[in-house]
Amino acid sequence: MSARLSLPIAPARAPRQGFQRERLLVIDPLTRRVGDYMIAELPRLLGSGDVLVVNDAATLPASLRVDDELELRLVAAHDDGAYEAVALGAGDDRVPTEERGAPRRLHEGQRLRFDDDLAARVLHVDADEPRLVRIRFDSRDAALLSSLYRHGKPIQYAYLSGALSLWDIQNRYASRPWAFEMPSAGRPLTFEALFELERRGATVSYVTHAAGVSSTGSAALDARLPLAERYEIPEATAESVRRAHRAGGRVVAAGTSVVRALEAGAEPTAALQAGAGETTLRLGPSYEPRVVDGLLTGLHEPGTSHFELLEAFAPRPLLLRAVEHAARTGYLQHELGDSCLILAGALMEGLPS
Q1: Do the Cβ atoms of 331 and 8 come closer than 8 Å?
Q2: Domain 63-151 sits in CATH 1.20.1070
Q3: 10-58+165-342: which CATH architecture?
Q4: Position 178 pLDDT exceeds 90
Q5: For a Cys-Cys bond, which of 11, 62, 201, 283 suits 312, CB 3.0-4.6 Å?
Q6: Strands 70-77, 83-88: parallel, antiparallel or unpaired by DSSP?
Q7: Average pLDDT, the chain
Q8: Burial of 87 by CB count in 10 Å (0-12 exposed, 13-18 middle, 19+ buried)?
Q9: Are strands 229-233 and 203-209 parallel, antiparallel or unpaired?
Q10: Phi, then psi, of 217 in degrees rounded to 5
C-alpha cells in the first residue's frame, strides 16, 4: 500500500467540549484487525492483570518572548538548573514553526530579559545548530516556576483555530511541572475511565517524563529529536509492571513518553527498575520493546516522525491500512484529535485483514 493516503486525516482544530467524545481506533497486530470504538470503551479492552501506565507530568508554559523578533521555547531541563531552549525568529502563533524566520544569533554570556522578574544568561550555543542554546535563569525552584507561570505561555500549534490556554494542555492527573509540550495521549482519560479500569481488574500506574517538543523549526535539529529527557519511575510502578509480566498481563503505555521512560528503565538488563534518569531513546521499526506490550496514542499520518514510532508496535502495512480507514471514516489527528490503541489480543472482531 502506498504511504500516501487517498485523503488526509483532518486535524482537530480546538479542544473538544465535554469529556470522552474522542473516538478510539484499535489496531490488533495479532489478528491484523482494526476496530472502531469510543475512548470511553477503553476499560473493556483491557483485562484483569493488565497495566495502563500514564505520564503524570504537568505541562509548563514553555514559550517565552524576548521581543517581537525572538521567542525561546524551553525543551529540556538539567539537574544543575540549566535549561535547553530553541530560539525562533519573527512570526506569531499562526505561522507554522518550520516557516518562522531564522532567529538572530545568540552568544555565550548574553543576557536575555523576558520581563522585569524573569531573565536568563546564555551558557552555551550549539556548534552545529545555533538556534539550540543552554540557558540559566536568574531565579530557581519555586521562584522560577512562579515567574514562568506569570510570563510564559503554552507552546502553540498553528493549525488550531485559536490559542491554547494552560488548562487546555493539562491531563487531569497531572502533577509535577516537567513537560514542555503536553503528553497528549493521556488527554482524553478521565478519572471515571481510570476508576473503571481498576474496577475491572486492571492497574493504573504512572511515571513522570519530561515530554519534549515535536518541532524546532529546523529540519536538522528535528532529526536529533528527542533530546535527552528526564524521567522518574516509582517503585510501585516498577512492581506493577513486573507483576503483570509474571502473571501474563499486558503493559500498555499511554503515550510514547511513557514508552521511553519504561524502556530506558529496563536498560541494560531488560528488568524494569525504579529510579530517575535521562533517555534519548528513539522508537521506530527497528526497535523491539522489552517492557511495553501496547500503546495508547494519537493519530498521525505516514511521513511524520510520530507514525514511525508506531512501527515499533505494529507492522507498517497494518498501520497504513488502519490510518487509511481513519481518513475515510472521519477520525481527527494531532494533539487534540482522536486516539489509537495498538495492542495484541485486543480484537477478536473488527475489520478483517
Answers
A1: no
A2: no
A3: 3-Layer(aba) Sandwich (3.40)
A4: yes
A5: 283
A6: antiparallel
A7: 93
A8: buried
A9: antiparallel
A10: 90, -5
- Angle at the Cα of 151 from the Cα atoms of 149 and 155, rounded to 5 degrees: 80
Q: What's the confidence (pLDDT) of residue 1?
A: 46
Q: Cα separation of 251 and 260, whole Å?
A: 13
Distances (CA, A) of 145 to 29, 137, 139, 141, 332: 43, 11, 9, 6, 34
d(CA 238, CA 297): 21
Place of cell 523576558: 114
Length of the chain: 353
Q: What is the pLDDT of residues 302-316, one digit of tens each?
A: 988 889 999 999 999
Q: Which cell numbers in the block locate residue 267? A: 536498560
Q: Which residue has the cell 528503565?
A: 265
Strand 177-179 relative to strand 58-59: parallel, antiparallel, unpaired? parallel
DSSP string, 51-69: EEEEE-PEEP--EEEEETT
Cell numbers placing 227: 533530546
Give yes or no for a contact between 172 and 190, defined as CB atoms under 8 angstroms apart. yes
The three grid cell numbers given for residue 309, joined into one nine-digit string: 514510532
The long-range contacts involving 121-127, CB below 8 angstroms and separated by at least 24 positions, are: 123/82
Q: How far apart are CA 262 and CA 291, in angstroms?
A: 7
Query: CA 30 to CA 36: how far, in whole Å?
Result: 17
What are the cell numbers at 288?
Answer: 523491539
CA 42 to chain centre: 19
CA dihedral sign of residues 260, 265, 267, 272: negative
Same topology, domains 10-58+165-342 and 63-151? Answer is: no
Q: What are the structural domain ranges in the chain? A: 10-58+165-342, 63-151
Counting beta carbons within 10 angstroms of the beta carbon of residue 90, is it exposed (0 to 12), middle (13 to 18) or buried (19 or more)?
middle
Query: Three-class SS of residue 201?
Result: coil
Candidates 231, 234, 192; CA nearest to 210 is: 231
CA distance 180 to 163: 16
pLDDT digits (tens, 9 = 90+) for 291-348: 999 999 999 889 888 899 999 999 999 999 999 999 999 999 999 999 999 999 997 6
